[in-house]
């Protein structure tokens, strides 16, 4: 699904941003958008958070969206 790919892309962006904060103390989103509290940064942080929540659903889905058969034990 398209929304799955968008959510995964945003989650990856968020993960890379947190990696930059953890390793280098550098927040790329804040740098590019005018600070952590700018409206644009807050919108991006919110979208990344929502994308992460959406990605949780990927863990609990069967394979019907991808055309794969569900796993059976």
Task: Itemize the secondary structure elements and their pairings.
Blueprint: H1 2-24, H2 28-33, H3 39-59
Helix pairs in contact: 1-3
Write up this protein:
This protein has 73 residues and is mainly alpha-helical. It has one domain. Helices cover 68% and strands 0% of the residues. The chain has helices at residues 2-24, 28-33, 39-59. Helix 1 crosses helix 3. 8% of the residues are buried. The model has no long low-confidence stretch (mean pLDDT 90).
Helical amount = 55-70%
User: What's the number of extended β-strand segments?
Assistant: 0
Mean pLDDT over the full residue set: 90
Strand and helix order: HHH
Give the oligomeric state of the chains in this entry, treating copies of one chain as homo and distinct chains as hetero. single chain
Into how many domains do the coordinates divide? 1
Secondary structure tally, helices: 3
Question: From the helix content, strand content and strand pairing, which structural class follows?
Answer: mainly alpha
Provide the gyration radius in Å: 16 Å
Describe the global form.
Answer: elongated
State the end-to-end CA separation: 26 Å
Offer a concise description of the structure:
The chain is an all-alpha fold and 73 residues long. It is built from three helices and no strands.
């Amino acid at each position: 699904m398209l929304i799955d790919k968008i959510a995964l892309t945003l989650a990856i962006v968020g993960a890379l941003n947190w990696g930059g904060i953890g390793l280098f103390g550098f927040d790329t989103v804040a740098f590019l958008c005018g600070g952590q509290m700018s409206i644009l940064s807050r919108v991006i942080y919110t979208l990344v958070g929502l994308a992460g929540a959406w990605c949780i659903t990927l863990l609990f889905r069967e394979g019907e969206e991808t055309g794969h058969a569900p796993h059976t034990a």
